Known about the structure:
Layout: H1 39-47, H2 49-60, E1 63-68, E2 71-76, H3 79-88, E3 93-95, H4 97-107, H5 116-126, H6 132-137, H7 139-150, E4 157-160, H8 162-179, H9 185-204, H10 219-240, H11 251-261, H12 268-299, H13 301-315, H14 329-341, E5 351-353, E6 357-359, E7 362-364, E8 369-371, H15 374-377, H16 420-437, E9 438-441, E10 451-454, E11 456-459, E12 465-469
Bound molecules: protoporphyrin IX containing FE (HEM).
Amino acid sequence: MNTTSPPQCPYGHGKNAAAPSLHPPGVWPPGPPSGLTGWTLLRRMSRDLLGSVAEWRQAYGDVVHLRIWPEHQIVVTDPQLVRDLLVGHHLELRRWERGISVFSQLHGHSVLTAEGEAWRAKRSALQPSFSPKAVQAFVPAIAGAAAKTFALWPRGEADWHIESALTSLTMDVILRMMFSSEIDEDARAAEGALNDTAKAANAEMYWPASLPDWMPWKRAKRRGIALLKRLISGHVEKRLALAPDAWPEDLLSRLLVLHRDDPAAWPLKAVHDECMTAFLAGHETTAATLTWWAWCMAANPQAQELARREVETVLQGRLPSAQDLPSLAYLATTLQETLRLYPAAPVLLSRRSTLAMTLGGWQLPAGTMFMVPLQLMQHDARWYPDPSAFRPERFDCGAPDLPRGSFMPFGTGPRVCLGQHLATTEMTVIAAMLLQRFTVSVPEGMAPPRPAFNITLRPECPLRLRLKEYIQGG
Ligand code: HEM
């Protein structure tokens, strides 16, 4: 197979050249040589997706063509073009079928995996539960969960499995929001199940089809999926055993009301699928971000001290309320900088165009695939000098403006993260309360954690940090 990607664009659209207004149809942007099938590119990507794409961007610019038979894939890293794609061309895009088919094994047909009218109906039914107002009302529950968890953390000085402890806490928060229930042993077991299913899903994405789950080596995945499904069904069944007027005010009750009012549009399976998505998307991502934030605080003691001082001044030892959050401005910038360095979803689910479209002067046929590697965009030295350094001041009110689209850890356009208000509120409350009670530092001799991409971006090895109780004025 011949690639149609010339190593140098014949129309001068190299990294440093100004784009002409329109390239003729049939000419692809520059990209790496693909050989006969392009599968060597795929193999490289399966080993190190972010590293490979970073190299290609360095060599070919902000719009890179990958010819991987039978697909033409375009990697877009220019902030304005990414917005053109995800906002302007939203109606001409569908999510990559293979990715959706892998996600559906666990999520079923939920707002995360649905397309078109089905997606619109689900999204608008769920939106009120994730609105800023609904999230504000939930702040006391988040603070309650955090207070209970932090009371169980060590009092003296100790190396502490902070990643696992923060994952349990975010799981507790989402269980309260969805089921008015606290974390128990069944839910704790879900942590291991999740690791197994995420690893299996990540590996399967690079295969054209999945082998059946009864294959002997898929035991961990099989068990993981069964455990997670049991966890959700257990909650749904318990709720259905109650009279509707005894249902608590939470996400599950709101979904069951939809089911009761219109069982054809909202069968119990749909309720189950939405619960699974909210449970998985709603705690994994916040756990990963808080883990990286704890690392950034430990590795940057001055920033930690500044954030703690702000928390002390604003909260005066109290639990945070929704009204306090806008005053925790510096703390918010530490979380934004963490999301820039370590976006929980470092690569958006690839999209496929359903119609021919023009993007950045390139005329691309229907069926073209698009990849948006957020992590790379957020490490772009053009907007983020010294991009690997932790500098919360990049997000200060007075800092120079960043190009729109250069920072989008929650995605953008109509499919922007449904839970972004919940996530930012929850992470601010938990981070503030952690700083009120503990200092974190890097254990002696510990090397910086390496990020590993398994659906979300987590430290390669479970993160442990040195924890010490902090007593205000003590
Ligand atoms: C730090 C935390 C989080 C990050 C960084 C994050 C990131 C993202 C991103 C980047 C997307 C868009 C994916 C794409 O376009 O391919 C997304 C979608 C989504 N997120 Fe989040 N997320 C976070 C927390 C949450 C929470 C707490 C929930 C709560 C349930 C949630 C639920 C969802 C859902 C349902 C979607 C799919 C929306 C749709 O397709 O309409 N996320 N998230």
